[in-house]
């Protein structure tokens, strides 16, 4: 078993809050993140599998790149996550939720390897790892 990680980048904005809360309560709970703000995200997609003896690869990197570019990067890049992406309706656009969105979007379409981890770096000090719904 080996692991391969491919890195991607995207820029997106988001805003934390609950529509049924007052502006004051949203600021009390979410502080400055109750305002629209953006990040330059770094996404790592890690797959696991056995090396194909014919190709020497775990996964077809072209397929992996195309899948993530079309289904994730094209959707998230330059979006306001909670407004532009229906999956986030009634969900906070946190890194914890974004990694679940990414997993649920690409795991069923991945070919030749198994999705092992989604890592999303929002800032130099905030990174979220997700190992799927059946982990741990």
Q: How would you describe this structure to a colleague?
A:
- The protein has 136 residues and is of the alpha+beta class.
- The chain has a single domain, classed as 6-pyruvoyl tetrahydropterin synthase/QueD (Tetrahydropterin Synthase, Chain A), CATH 3.30.479.10.
- Helices cover 29% and strands 32% of the residues.
- It has helices at 23-30, 61-76, 81-84, 95-106; strands spanning 2-14, 37-49, 79-80, 114-123, 126-130.
- The chain has a five-stranded mixed sheet with strand order 3-1-2-4-5.
- A hairpin with a 2-residue loop joins strand 4 (114-123) and strand 5.
- It is elongated and about 60 Å long.
- The protein starts with a strand and ends in a 6-residue tail after the last strand.
- The mean pLDDT is 96.
Overall, the morphology is: elongated
The CATH homologous superfamily corresponds to 6-pyruvoyl tetrahydropterin synthase/QueD
Strand content: 25-35%
Number of domains: 1
CATH level-1 class:
Alpha Beta
Instruction: Describe the largest sheet.
Output: 5 strands, mixed
If helices are DSSP runs of H or I spanning 4 or more residues, what is the number of helices? 4
How large, in whole angstroms, is the Cα Rg? 17 Å
Low-confidence stretches: none
Number of strands: 5
CATH topology: Tetrahydropterin Synthase, Chain A
CATH architecture heading: 2-Layer Sandwich
Task: Summarize the amount of helix as a percent range.
Answer: 25-40%
What is the structural class? Answer: alpha+beta
The N- to C-terminal Cα distance equals 18 Å
- The overall pLDDT, averaged over residues, is 96
The secondary-structure element order is EHEHEHHEE
For the biggest β-sheet, the strand order reads: 3-1-2-4-5
């Amino acid at each position: 078993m080996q692991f391969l990680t491919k890195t991607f980048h995207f820029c997106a904005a988001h805003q934390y809050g609950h529509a049924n809360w007052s502006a004051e309560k949203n600021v009390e709970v979410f502080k400055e993140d109750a305002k629209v703000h953006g990040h330059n995200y770094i996404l790592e997609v890690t797959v696991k599998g056995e090396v194909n003896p014919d190709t020497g690869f775990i996964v077809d990197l072209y397929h992996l790149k195309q899948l993530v570019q079309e289904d994730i990067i094209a959707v998230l890049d330059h979006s306001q996550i909670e407004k532009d992406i229906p999956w986030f309706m009634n969900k906070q656009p946190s890194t914890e939720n974004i990694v679940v969105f990414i997993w649920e979007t690409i795991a069923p379409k991945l070919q030749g390897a198994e999705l092992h981890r989604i890592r999303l770096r929002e800032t130099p000090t905030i990174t979220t790892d997700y190992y799927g719904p059946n982990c741990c």
